[in-house]
Amino acid sequence: MRDKRKILTAVAAALVAICLLVTGIVISGYREGDAKAADQIKKSAKMAVKVKAEATGTEEATTPSIETPVEVQPATLEFTAKKKAIKAGKSYTFKVNLEGAVWKSSKTAVATVSSNGKVSAKKVGKTKITATVGTQSVSITIKVKPKKIIGIDAGHQRRANLSMEPVGPGSSQTKIKVSGGTSGRTTGVPEYVLTLDIAKKLKAILEDRGYQVVMTRTKHDVDISNKERALKLNEKCNIAVRLHADGADSSSAKGASMLYPGTDNPYVANLSAKSKKLSQKILDSYLASTGLSKRGQGLYVRNDLTGTNWSTIPVALIEMGFMTNASDDTYMQTKAGQKAMAEGIANGIDAYFGY
Ligand SMILES: [Zn+2]
Question: Starting from the edge strand earliest in sequence, which strands make up the sheet with 102-105, in order?
């Protein structure tokens, strides 16, 4: 009996021991599994951060940072977007690092600035762009560059120069340096006065439109040959416009026309196509603006003009009207007429460049 109890006790003890052992194993196993799972979760989290970082394009994975209270102090006003030079006709939006800036341009004829900082360049020159926020201001002086450089030759001068010069590069053929030009049969105004009047008006209009202008002359008492005029405009101009007026024995001859180099020109055949296009654009705009008539076909090839043959840039010569015709001559001496003539030529230049 006693032995039986002993055996039972031993068996019971053994069972308890086994139970404990199994429980221990299970618990430790569970813990081990738990640790592994936690490890797995950590790895996944890292992966997720990395994936997010790659997706957002940030350079490295970042762990969420705890926001620290920022010390409150007024930031110094400064430009975050600015330019030192803008081409006329173009715009650029300036920016500062603070909200609510008030913008100002010191010369609004050169460039304007809108309430959101958009600077629109108008004409060649310099202007100071200022942004003000509260008591702080920042400013920068900007340069407006020309959209194109236009050469204008006011034909003739007070006194003709009858000495000779070659009609084109390498030519043995010569022509007088500057002829006297015609004059108004009704008004008595010489051609060289009319051409400079229109040249000055055209210059002002072109500059207002953002062009830079180079003039071969700004007064009557000069001595510049046709070759020299061409060479001067070749230096930095994009195109050359030569201003002249016609004269004829018959007072009935009237109207405007254009003279340009042909494809058979021995010196500047390469400029023919562009010169023709320039001539066509100027003539169309000129006729539309003035109401003057077109002489004949309007466009004429001329390969004998020294001032054209020495050109290295597209060149158009406009015969603005007949000074020997009463109606043309009178019109070309009116204020409204001259304004329309200059505007018409400017419109043609705009059209040539596609502005
Ligand atoms: Zn002339």
Answer: 85-87, 136-145, 125-133, 102-105
Q: What letter represents residue 111's amino acid?
A: A
Does the structure show a pLDDT above 90 at 60? no
Tell me the residue type at 76.
T
Comparing 50-59, 76-85, 159-168, 217-226, the range with the smallest average pLDDT is: 50-59
The DSSP code sequence of 292-330 is PPEEEEEEEE-S--HHHHT-SS-EEEEEEEETTSHHHHH
End-to-end CA distance of the chain: 123
- For the chain, what is the largest distance between any 2 Cα atoms, rounded to a whole number of angstroms? 162
Residue 340 CA to ligand 1 center (angstroms) comes to 20
* Residue range 149-353 in CATH 3.40.50.970: no
Q: Which of 89, 91, 211, 87 is nearest to 148 (CA)?
A: 211
Give every CB contact of residue 46 below 8 A, 6+ residues apart in sequence: 61
Domain 79-145 fold: Immunoglobulin-like (2.60.40)
DSSP per residue over 212-260, as a string? EEEES-SSSS----HHHHHHHHHTT-SEEEEEEEE--SSTT---EEEEE
pLDDT at position 74 is: 73
**Residue spans in the chain of domains classed CATH 3.40.630.40:** 149-353
Q: Is 54 helix (H, G, I), strand (E, B) or coil?
A: helix
Output the CA 197–ligand 1 centroid distance in Å: 14
Q: Is the pLDDT score of 18 beyond 60?
A: no
pTM for the predicted model, two decimal places: 0.78
Percent residues over pLDDT 90 in the chain: 79
Residues of each domain in the chain carrying CATH 2.60.40.1080: 79-145
Q: Is the pLDDT of residue 339 over 70?
A: yes
Compute, in angstroms, the gap from residue 210 CA to the centroid of ligand 1: 28
Question: In the prediction, which pLDDT does 63 show?
Answer: 56
11: CA distance to ligand 1 center in Å? 136
- 129: CA distance to ligand 1 center in Å? 45
